[in-house]
Amino acid sequence: MKNLCFIIILSLLISACQPLSTEKQQQDFICRNMIQGYLKMQQYTEYKLWSVDMQRSQLFRYIYRPITEHGLMISALKNQALNFDCIQDQMTFRLRLKPKQLLMEFQLPKAKL
Distance from CA of residue 84 to its chain's centroid? Predict the structure, then answer.
């Protein structure tokens, strides 16, 4: 019985760990770099990634929170969190700081054949 429960739990965990598609990996890479550029420009070096929501195909949500002087993230600092939306529309990426403040836009160059 214990082995059966272990196998069921293990199979659920493995099925939940599906790799990202190439398109989602590209979108995540571009979005994270846009956010990092914004944080550097604003000198928000103490902010680190807290969570990512990639449930929607064109919209990724990122939450960044400040870390303490000991390198810990404290969930009590929710009011200091920065919530970013990164939207992909074909070859254009838009980064918004919630609520709906457009920070930057990036357009991929068209591929030449």
Answer: 8
Grouping H, G, I as helix, E, B as strand and the rest as coil, residue 44 is coil
Q: What are the C-alpha distances in Å from 13 to residues 9, 18, 19, 50, 89? A: 6, 10, 13, 21, 32
Amino acid (1-letter code) at residue 5: C
Helix (H, G, I), strand (E, B) or coil at 57: coil
pLDDT in tens, the chain (113 residues): 666 655 666 555 555 556 778 888 889 999 999 999 999 999 988 899 999 998 888 899 999 988 876 656 555 555 688 999 999 988 899 999 987 788 888 888 876 65
Q: How far apart are CA 61 and CA 50, in angstroms?
A: 11
φ/ψ bin of 98: left (φ > 0), alpha (ψ from -120 to 50), beta (otherwise): beta
For residue 80, the tally of other CB atoms under 10 A from its CB is 12
Whole-prediction pTM value? 0.72
